[in-house]
Amino acid sequence: MNFKPQFTTPDKSKGAGGPSYEPVSNYMVHVKDMITFRPDQTIQEVIDIIIDKRISGAPVLDSNKKLVGMISEKDCLKIIVDHVYHNLPMETRKVSDYMTKEVKTMAPTSDVVSAANEFLSTPIRRMPVVDNHVLLGQISRRDILRAAKKISPTTW
Known about the structure:
about 160 residues, CBS-domain, two-stranded antiparallel ribbon, disordered N terminus
């Protein structure tokens, strides 16, 4: 018995050859449904939102909606060390001081199999989906698992 992914569409660029899998844009959470932060927000505000909304982090966007970083719970924990050991005031620290600036991203046209492979090779659980640095959404390991549910066993 062989397994054939049912979320494929013919790929005209490959001629009669191999399949093309659905793009991650079909499964991502769209930016309008996401919590995002600004670089000038205070870390205290971000911590409050992370706790209140029960999220582990979110993208950071500039005024043009371009992705400039990610801020996570771990990034926010750094402020505690800075506050206690370096006597830096927590209230005035900004997202831009603690966010991760080098962010691994995915194109909206990336297929779900490539995304699964990417998630297997990194500890990252979610990636921003961007086009020309503009955030379109976010894809997670769970979103890829949702796509994988469309795989059904078939025989040749």
